[in-house]
Design a protein that fits this description.
The complex is a heterodimer. Chain A is α/β, with parallel strands linked by helices. Helix content of chain A is about 40%, strand content about 15%. Chain A has a 5-stranded parallel β-sheet with strand order 7-6-5-8-9. In chain A, strands 2-1-3-4 form a 4-stranded parallel β-sheet, with helices on both faces. The chains are: A alpha/beta, B alpha+beta. Bound molecules: zinc ion.
């Protein structure tokens, strides 16, 4: 007989008393397919650990562990920030991105590719153009699966970064009036963010979009059923002076079934420094990046631009999530 | 004519489907693949008062008995229904249907970018609010009641 020696993650990190290990247990081995897979306490534990990494630096807590990145759809930022997070924690990374995906998956069923990655690694991060891909992968894989975007459905780690950024800059969510503008119909980050808002309950959410890009009914019904206070408006100028946070999303060409429809809406909701003249002093602007035309560079030099800060929180947030999922305590 | 007269006329052999949510009797006949041209004697009673449901529909079909599969399909669109099998004017069997929490393998997801479409796997729908709506557990696409009925009919295929 051999004995397993269990060392708590708090011991490894020297965080005794800082983080409740009970909350940590809840995330160990967990699939993250939707923001709604997490409780508020889960979010808070992830944020605490991300804070710790930002203040005191990363440690080799994931040495010997392997992360698979399976990106069937292009993304540089999300993939690199997961990879960076894993390397920072002493782990290693295997996988592929869309350029190779065609050959990797040539003639092979998606679920067989997932099985292969599952046998090569301890956690799989997956992005795919079809909705439900991460959920299906999680059913097939023994190891935890993290959804890094499935079609127009969800992108939960982006929403975690978004909420984390708001909390860093505004210290709470519940007192805020938040505008979400742009493509609310096809943007998965919007779904995940709004679902996260059902957990963090802002005072009010304005859904600002062109009528063609309004939030889909199922998402609307869901957030309404969770008691989220929201209102749909078609013009940013109607609500700008009320907003504490403005979240801008890009209009993604690839989500449109019809290119003519895309051309019609792409410039309709464009943020410029000029538009911002009427906003609150302490308004912050967030954007998941990369941007296309919806966020003009003139905004970058205003005090409202918080999207570079937001982007910089991606690695610590994802490092915290990977640590808690792979914790092994 | 009183409500009583409408309801009580008995059938000799066949099926009485009672407590159908009001307005859905015709859908029940549709999913049973009964168009009226089959020569069954059929009584359809719609929007009558019910102690249980406020308003309900009733369908009586002379000479037709429902299989277990047919009972299950009725459960999807008329979760409150009771099915009485009548032989020689007597109720010989009473089936209370119950709506499943999930529906696996019966209907395909209508979303063209659902992973189940591309992997050729069965999908599972989670039933929301007792037979009124259903949601694909993979892509979260929700079906309204009419879409749901349409997909069931599509899945049942052309009438035999
Ligand atoms: Zn689906």
């Amino acid at each position: 007989m051999f004995k397993l020696i269990k060392i708590s993650i708090n011991e490894i990190l020297g965080l005794e008393g800082v983080i409740m290990s009970d909350g940590f247990k809840g995330l160990s081995g967990k699939d993250i397919i939707s923001v709604l897979d997490l409780s508020k306490e889960d979010f808070e534990n992830i944020f605490k650990l991300a804070d710790e990494y930002r203040v005191n630096g990363y440690r080799d807590v994931l040495r010997g562990r392997v992360l698979s990145v399976a990106f069937f759809e292009p993304s540089t930022r999300t993939r690199l920030s997961f990879e960076s997070a894993m390397h920072r924690l002493g782990g290693s990374v295997i996988g592929f991105s869309s350029e190779e995906a065609t050959s990797v998956a040539k003639g092979e069923k998606f679920i067989d590719t997932v099985r292969m990655l599952d046998s090569y690694s301890d956690v799989i991060v997956i992005r795919h153009k079809f909705e439900g891909a991460a959920k299906l992968a999680a059913e097939v894989a023994e190891h935890p699966v993290i959804n890094a975007g499935d079609g127009r459905n969800e992108h939960p780690t982006q929403a975690m970064i978004d909420i984390y950024t708001i909390l860093k800059l505004k210290s709470n969510v519940s007192n805020l009036i938040i505008g979400v503008m742009g493509d609310l119909k096809y943007a998965r980050v919007v779904n995940s963010l709004l679902y996260a808002f059902t957990i963090f309950k802002p005072k009010k959410v304005y859904l600002i979009s062109h009528p063609l890009l309004k939030l889909r009914d199922e998402a609307k019904k869901f957030i309404a059923s969770q008691g989220l206070n929201f209102e749909e408006v078609s013009d940013i100028n109607l609500v700008l002076n009320e907003l504490d946070v403005l979240y801008v999303t890009r209009v993604q060409k690839e989500r449109f079934p019809d290119p003519i429809e895309y051309e019609k809406v792409k410039n309709a909701y464009k943020l410029t420094a000029d538009v911002l003249r009427k906003c609150k002093e302490d308004l912050i602007i967030l954007h998941p990046l990369p941007r296309v035309d919806e966020l003009e560079r003139s905004v970058d030099s205003t005090k409202h631009a918080a999207y570079f800060k937001q982007a910089s929180l991606g690695v610590p947030l994802r490092a915290a999530l990977l640590t808690l999922i792979l914790g092994g305590y | 004519m009183s409500v009583r007269e409408l309801i009580v006329s008995k059938i000799k052999d066949g099926t009485v489907i009672d407590h159908i949510p009001s307005g859905r009797a015709l859908d029940v006949l549709k999913v049973l693949r009964i168009s009226g041209s089959e020569n069954f004697r059929i009584a359809i009673v719609m929007n009558v008062e019910s102690s249980k449901l406020n308003k309900k529909d009733i369908v009586k079909i002379e000479g037709r008995f429902l299989s277990k599969d047919e009972t299950d399909i009725i459960a999807l669109i008329a979760p409150t229904a009771t099915i009485n099998i009548i032989k020689n004017f007597e109720v010989v069997e009473k089936r209370k249907v119950s709506t499943p929490r999930v529906i696996s393998g019966l209907i395909k997801c209508p979303n063209v970018t659902c992973i189940t479409k591309h992997e050729g796997i069965e999908t599972t729908f989670e039933v929301l609010s007792a037979g009124l709506r259903a949601r694909c557990i993979y892509c979260n696409t929700e079906l309204s009641y009419p879409e749901f009925v349409e997909l069931i009919l599509k899945q049942l295929g052309p009438k035999k």
